[in-house]
Amino acid sequence: MNIPKALIPEASKTENPLDQIPAKSRRQFFTDAGKTAAGFGIAALLGNLGNYALSYAADKEPIKIGVLHSLSGTMAISEVSLRDVVLMAVDEINAAGGVLGRMIEPVIVDPASNWDLFAEKAKQLLLVDKVAAVFGCWTSVSRKSVLPVFESNNGLLFYPVQYEGEECSRNVFYTGAAVNQQAVPAVDYLMSEEGGDYKKFYLLGTDYVYPRTTNKILRAMLLAKGVPASHIGEEYTPFHHQDYQTIVSNVRQFSRRGDAAVISTINGDSNVPFYKEFANQGLRSEDVPIMAFSVAEDELRSMDTTALVGHLAAWNYYQSVDTPENKKFVSDFKSYCQKNGLPGGNGRVTDDPIEAAYFGVHVWKQAVEKAGRTDVDAVRQAVYGLEFEAPGGKKKMDAVNHHTHKPVLIGEIRKDGQFTIISQTDLVRPEPWSEFTSPDKGCDWVNHKGTYKKA
C-alpha cells in the first residue's frame, strides 16, 4: 500500500519513521491500517500512521542532551529563560517525531553561577550522562571554564550568547554574536550622524573576560578612528555589585559637555542598581545614552523601565521583530511558560539569547538528521553552512569558523520593556578575531584543520 509522501503528516516525515519499525511490526500496522481506512477513510489512516510512528519512537532509547545554565545565583536573571526555551524546542521536536526516530531527553543541571561548578557539571554531562550535545553557558568565564572539558573529551557545546571573540574551538558552535556583529557596529552607530555623533565613550563593565576583552577591542577601534585616549573612560565592577553611586558620578563628570555615551558590558543582576542610580542622579538618555550589550527584554522584566526610555542596546534579535514567524515564536514561548507553570507565565518575553538558544537546538537536530547519527565528529561536519529559519529571520552557520551569520539590530528601550528597532543590517559574517587587535588571525576548521589562519 503506497501512501503519497505529500499526504503524510509533518510528524511522520522525520527520517521516514516507518523505516525505523521492524518488518513484522510494519506488517501488523498495515493490516490494522487497512481496516482503519475502510471504516474511517484516509484522514484517520494518516493520523494513525503518525501516532504509530511516534509511539515507536518513544519506545526507542532516547538521545540525551545536556542543559547547562545557571538556575540560581547572580546569572539566574538571564539564564533561567535559556533553559526554558531549550526545553520548549525539545518538546517541539519530540512532538514532531524526535530525531532519527528517537525522542530527545534533556538532562538539566544547575551550575549556580559558580564558574568552577560549570566545569564539574560539564564533565558529569559528558562522562556520566553521556549526552550527545550540551546547550549552555552565558558568561565567557563559564564558557572558558568548560572549554577544556569539551576539548579533552570531544564534546559539543552550543553557546547562545554574544561574546568577545578571540577563541576558535572545534568543540563549540557559537550561535550568539561575535564582536563585529554587536559591539563594533554599535559604537560605529554612536559615532555616526544618525547615532548622535558622539565623541567620548565611557566603557563600563563587569570585571571578567568578556567586558575586558570587548573593551580592549573597542579602545583599539576608537584610537584607530582618531578618538584621543583622554576621551575614553573605563571602569569595572565585580559580579553582583550593587552600589553605583560613585561610578555614576564619574560618568556625570565625564559627560558634562553632552558629547559622551556609556558602553555597558555590565552582566547579571547588577544592571538593576546601575540603571536605577543613573536615573536617581538625573541622567537621561538625551543627556548621555547607555548602549548596552547584556541588557535585553528578559532583564528589563525585573526593572522599572520608566527612566530607561531612550537608552539603547545592540543585539541580533528583538521580540518586536514584526514577522508572522516571530509572532508565533513569542506566542508559543508565552504559552509554554504558562502551560508548564513557570514563573511569569504568559507574561514572559523573548530576547536575543533566548532566540539563539532556541535555534541552536534546531540547528543541532538538523545536523544530526543530515549526518544520520549523533556522534560529535559527524554532527560537527554537518553543521557547516547550515541555514535555519529562526524566529527573527534566516540565520546561517558559517562554512568554516563555527560562528553564525546574523543581522545587527540597534534598539531603543520603550516604556513597556520592549525595543523599537532603529537600525538594522543584512546578515553579517562573523569574525572571531577582530581586525583591530588580531588582524592576521582567523578560524578555519575545514580547510586548515583549525589553525588560526585568515579564512
Descriptive labels:
single chain, alpha/beta, Rossmann fold, seven-stranded mixed beta sheet, five-stranded parallel beta sheet, 15 strands, globular
Describe this structure in words.
- The chain has 455 residues and is of the alpha/beta class.
- Among the domains are: 5-59, no CATH class; 63-177 and 323-400, 3-Layer(aba) Sandwich (Rossmann fold), CATH 3.40.50.2300.
- It is 39% helix and 15% strand.
- The chain is built from 13 helices and 15 strands.
- A 7-stranded mixed β-sheet has the order 7-6-8-9-10-14-15, sandwiched between helices.
- Helix 5 links the parallel strand 3 (133-136) and strand 4.
- It is globular and about 70 Å long.
- The protein starts with 22 loop residues before the first helix and ends in a 31-residue tail after the last strand.
- The model is unreliable at 1-46 and 450-455 (pLDDT under 50).
Summarize the structure.
The chain has helices at residues 23-40, 42-59, 76-95, 115-128, 140-152, 183-191, 209-224, 245-254, 271-280, 297-300, 324-339, 352-371, 376-383, and strands spanning 63-68, 104-109, 133-136, 157-159, 172-174, 200-206, 232-237, 260-265, 290-292, 312-315, 387-390, 393-397, 404-405, 409-413, 419-424.
